[in-house]
């Protein structure tokens, strides 16, 4: 009965979405306040109904109700409680339900916090959000119903895919969807503005917090997914350029570009048309990602079991939304008035460069992801486009961006002084060179590209701090004055600095691991040792054990340095009985920002075991950098000027604090 | 600078960057991609030694041998033809005889043995790389009635 209630709530949510998609738009056309207000009420109702529906599915999973097909296929009575929860979205149907839940959550947020928006804009935004919700609710109900019952309820479930039985999976998809789907709000704002045919700086100010929030969540989701793949898959890799990883990375790149172009639009009323297009494209890339993952056209780690009707259905949604949005754009864009002028060397110019590079990079990733599909469709030849392609294109294209990042905030709006900015970055460049030289000395040489990459990372960190240093006037004024000046700066300045520092930190991690990691594959018997990264690893022996739904073989290792025992680490191979599936649970020990990574291979006949040992220098920098980026996003979001509820005051404050302190 | 010149500089810069990106993509496509083959394709493929390819098929039953240390040899078959493969390293968890596999690597000069540096066998017991399943189906291999192999 409860299960049917969830199903029913989903159908009702579809109905309220339909109301939300039609009535407010008519209201906006007729300037009928009551009709427009229905959008607000319907958005809240839809969210509550979706939450009820999702709650019911969660209930079915937690209580292991195997009469529900979805639970039977993806759960087991013996798995720990947390995986019963995460199992809800560890499958196609449940994760689609989560997708729509998050979509309606964002609509409800707009409904609740959108009081400061012009009435018609809010009504149109909610209507566009509702169209998306209607499409995907229909998709779930018609092709992927999670509430399907089994006639004869089996006694035991088929278990959740073992690689998904991990805390990382509990967090990764919700965060990813918050980002992915969060960009729908930017999309809806863009469409609403195009419907009204009016767009101005205020529009950018309303869109920016949503972009920031979605971007921050997407950053967290991608980063989490990367770390999860790193420790769970046992290959020691943290990014595979897997098509599905790319599917989330392309919207991230486009979203990052959107974040920056909205800034230009907000401050200078320039790049209007471009920003609207970017808002449309960012969410379109999210939709495309959803299609790629769900349609089964890709060979991927992430591929869900699929049937062709689903792929076709999403393809139709994709064509309707992207095609419709772009047609509307083509029709209306000419009517939008172009904005402020600026010199090529200026803050705007720097942000245009940022957009140019990010969108081009996103396009190369997109091409690399879709090319095999296109080629196979046209010629039938099967190819794999792997890391070498992406490293070569994406890596090289991002290089000028990395060099330019510290310059951006140091250039004035309208007309900047490149030479002046260069002089002010002198210390940062020097710092980078010193870091490069020290590493050259310590490593006795080393690959020149690696040294350059590390120096570049150090330069980016120092360069991002330069902005704060200059604004505080430290060195020219006393410490307390400098501190006061710093605390008077808008928070978005700190957000920018943090995010840019994060980029530098991530770069350092990537370069250090790529250039200096070591990998040994050795056959070990108890008592034998091997060296990695200056540490000695001793194999002590194997132990067999059992978990709630698996059996495992664990190897015990002791790590020592200079004869002193520092730590011990377990590395194991698990065998999940319900699915008859083995997994590797790597043993990882952290030393500072570096890690020793041990995974077990096959047993040898003579009692030994194959052991794979990696030394991963500075690897934590990769994710630490993303933490900086997220912190930057969160700090910017807390900026009073961007706070959704406080636009009136923001206007007064805006002018004086924004001028570069020179 | 006049308005026109400013616009010219920005557009010119943008276009040249995009042209550079396109060239880069084209170079990368000519160098950094690997074509996919099943053993039956190799005879007519006429590959130059050292060309990186992906070789897919089933691991032939009874062909898995462990040599010195970490070197492993096995055969990849599409049930008609087979190719011997050597690989040094740890095999993925799901590598089993009779199951689907994709090996990435190349043939060395004058040797019929495929030297793999990456072996993939992905995360599900019912998983077979889509590429392999398609090709095997095309060759008429019965895949055990599992139509929708992912």
Low confidence ranges of chain B: 123-127, 143-150
Strand adjacency order, main sheet of chain A: 3-4-5-6-7
Q: Which pair has the most extensive contact?
A: A-B, 55 and 43 residues
Query: Helix amount of chain B, in percent?
Result: 25-40%
Order of helices and strands of chain B: HEHEEEEEEH
Query: What's the gyration radius of chain B in Å?
Result: 22 Å
Oligomer: heterodimer
- Count the strands of chain B? 7
What global shape of chain B is seen? elongated
How would you describe the shape of chain A?
globular
The H-and-E topology of chain A, N to C, reads as HHHHHHHHHHHHEHHHHHHEEEEEEEEEHH
End-to-end distance of chain B: 59 Å
List segments of chain A where confidence is low: pLDDT < 50 over at least 5 consecutive residues: 644-662
Arithmetic mean pLDDT of chain B:
77
Average pLDDT figure of chain A: 87
Supply the number of helical segments of chain B: 3
Strand content of chain A: 5-15%
Strand percent estimate of chain B: 25-35%
Radius of gyration of chain A from the CA trace?
27 Å
Major sheet attributes of chain A:
5 strands, antiparallel
Number of helices of chain A: 20
Describe this structure in words.
The complex is a heterodimer of chains A (662) and B (150). With 662 residues, chain A is an alpha+beta fold. Helix content of chain A is 64%, strand content 12%. Chain A has 20 helices and 10 strands. Chain A has a 5-stranded antiparallel beta sheet with strand order 3-4-5-6-7, with no helix packed on it. Chain A has a 4-stranded antiparallel beta sheet with strand order 2-10-9-8. In chain A, β3 (529-532) and β4 form a beta hairpin. The longest helix of chain A is centred in the middle third of the chain and has 33 residues, at 347-379. The radius of gyration of chain A is 27 Å and the shape is globular. In chain A, 53% of the residues are buried. Mean pLDDT of chain A is 87; it is low at 644-662. With 150 residues, chain B is an alpha+beta fold. Chain B contains 3 helices and 7 strands; from the N terminus they run αβαββββββα. Chain B has helices at residues 3-31, 39-45, 130-138; strands at 33-37, 53-59, 65-66, 71-77, 82-88, 100-107, 114-120. A 5-stranded mixed barrel of chain B has the order 2-4-5-7-6. In chain B, β4 (71-77) and β5 form a beta hairpin. Chain B is elongated, with a radius of gyration of 22 Å. The N and C termini of chain B lie far apart (59 Å). Residues 123-127 and 143-150 of chain B have low confidence and may be disordered. Chains A and B meet through α12, β1, α13, β2 and β7 of A and α1, β1 and α3 of B.
């Amino acid at each position: 009965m409860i299960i049917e209630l969830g199903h029913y709530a989903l159908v009702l949510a579809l109905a309220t979405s339909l109301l939300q998609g039609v009535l407010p738009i008519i209201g906006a056309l007729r300037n009928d306040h009551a009709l427009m207000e229905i959008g607000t009420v319907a958005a809240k109702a839809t969210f509550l109904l979706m939450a009820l529906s999702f709650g019911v599915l969660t209930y079915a999973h937690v209580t292991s109700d195997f009469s529900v097909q979805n639970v039977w296929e993806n759960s087991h009575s013996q798995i720990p409680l947390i995986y019963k929860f995460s199992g809800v979205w560890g499958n196609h149907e449940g994760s689609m339900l989560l997708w729509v839940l998050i979509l309606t959550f964002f609509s409800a947020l707009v409904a609740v916090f959108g009081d400061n928006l012009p009435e018609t804009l809010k009504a149109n935004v909610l209507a566009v959000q509702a169209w998306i919700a209607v499409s995907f609710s229909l998709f779930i109900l018609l092709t992927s119903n999670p509430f399907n019952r089994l006639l004869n309820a089996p006694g035991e479930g088929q278990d959740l895919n073992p690689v998904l039985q991990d805390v990382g999976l509990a967090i990764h998809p919700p965060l990813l969807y918050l980002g992915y789907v969060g960009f729908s709000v930017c999309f809806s704002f863009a469409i609403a503005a195009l419907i009204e045919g009016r767009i101005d700086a205020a529009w950018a100010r309303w869109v920016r917090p949503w972009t920031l929030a979605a971007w921050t969540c997407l950053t967290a989701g991608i980063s989490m997914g990367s770390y999860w793949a790193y420790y769970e898959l046992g290959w020691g890799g943290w990014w595979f350029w897997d098509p599905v990883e790319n599917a989330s990375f392309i919207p991230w790149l486009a979203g990052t570009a959107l974040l920056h172009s909205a800034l230009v639009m907000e401050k200078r009323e320039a790049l209007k048309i471009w920003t609207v297009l970017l808002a449309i494209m960012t969410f379109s890339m999210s939709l495309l990602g959803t299609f790629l993952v769900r349609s089964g056209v890709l060979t991927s780690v992430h591929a869900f079991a699929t049937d062709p009707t689903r792929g076709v259905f999403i393809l139709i949604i994709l064509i309707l939304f992207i095609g419709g949005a772009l047609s509307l754009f083509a029709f209306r864009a000419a009517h939008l008035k172009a904005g402020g002028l600026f010199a090529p060397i200026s803050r705007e110019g720097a942000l245009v460069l940022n957009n140019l590079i990010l969108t081009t990079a996103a396009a190369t990733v997109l091409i690399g992801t879709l090319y095999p599909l296109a080629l196979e469709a046209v010629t039938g030849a099967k190819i794999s486009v792997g890391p070498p392609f992406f490293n070569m294109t994406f890596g090289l294209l991002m290089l000028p961006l990395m060099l330019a990042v510290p310059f951006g905030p140091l250039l004035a709006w309208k007309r900047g002084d490149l030479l002046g900015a260069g002089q002010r970055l002198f210390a940062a460049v020097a710092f980078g060179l010193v870091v490069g030289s020290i590493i050259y000395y310590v490593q006795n040489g080393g690959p020149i590209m690696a040294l350059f990459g590390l120096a570049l990372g150090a330069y980016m960190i120092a360069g991002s701090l330069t902005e704060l240093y200059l604004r505080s006037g430290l060195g020219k004024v006393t410490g307390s004055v400098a501190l006061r000046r710093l605390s008077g700066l808008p928070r978005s300045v700190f957000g920018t600095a943090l995010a840019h520092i994060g980029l530098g930190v991530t770069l350092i991690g990537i370069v250090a691991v790529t250039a200096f990691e070591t990998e040994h594959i050795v056959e070990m018997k108890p008592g034998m040792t091997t060296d990695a990264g200056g540490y000695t690893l001793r194999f002590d022996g194997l132990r067999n054990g059992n978990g709630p739904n698996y059996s495992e073989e664990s190897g015990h290792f002791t790590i020592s340095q200079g004869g002193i025992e520092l730590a011990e680490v377990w590395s194991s191979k698990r065998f999940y009985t319900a699915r008859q599936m083995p997994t590797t649970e790597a043993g990882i020990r952290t030393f500072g920002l570096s890690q020793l990574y041990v995974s077990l291979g096959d047993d040898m006949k003579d009692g030994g075991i194959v052991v794979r040992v990696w030394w991963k220098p500075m690897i934590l920098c990769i994710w630490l950098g993303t933490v900086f980026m997220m912190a930057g996003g969160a700090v910017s979001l807390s900026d009073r000027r961007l706070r959704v509820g406080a636009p009136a005051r923001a206007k007064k404050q805006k002018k004086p604090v924004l001028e570069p302190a020179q | 600078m006049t308005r026109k010149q400013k616009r010219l500089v920005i557009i010119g810069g943008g276009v040249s960057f995009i042209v550079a990106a396109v060239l880069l993509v084209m170079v990368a496509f000519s160098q950094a991609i690997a074509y996919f083959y099943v053993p039956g394709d190799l005879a007519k493929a006429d590959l130059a030694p050292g060309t990186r390819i992906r070789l897919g098929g089933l691991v032939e039953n009874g062909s898995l041998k462990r040599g010195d240390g970490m070197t492993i040899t096995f055969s990849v078959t599409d049930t008609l033809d087979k190719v011997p493969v050597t690989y040094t390293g740890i095999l993925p968890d799901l590598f089993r005889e009779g199951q689907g596999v994709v090996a990435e690597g190349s043939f060395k000069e004058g040797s019929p043995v495929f030297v793999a540096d990456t072996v993939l066998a992905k995360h599900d017991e019912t998983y077979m790389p889509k590429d392999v399943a398609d090709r095997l189906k095309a060759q008429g291999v019965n895949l055990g009635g599992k139509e929708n192999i992912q």
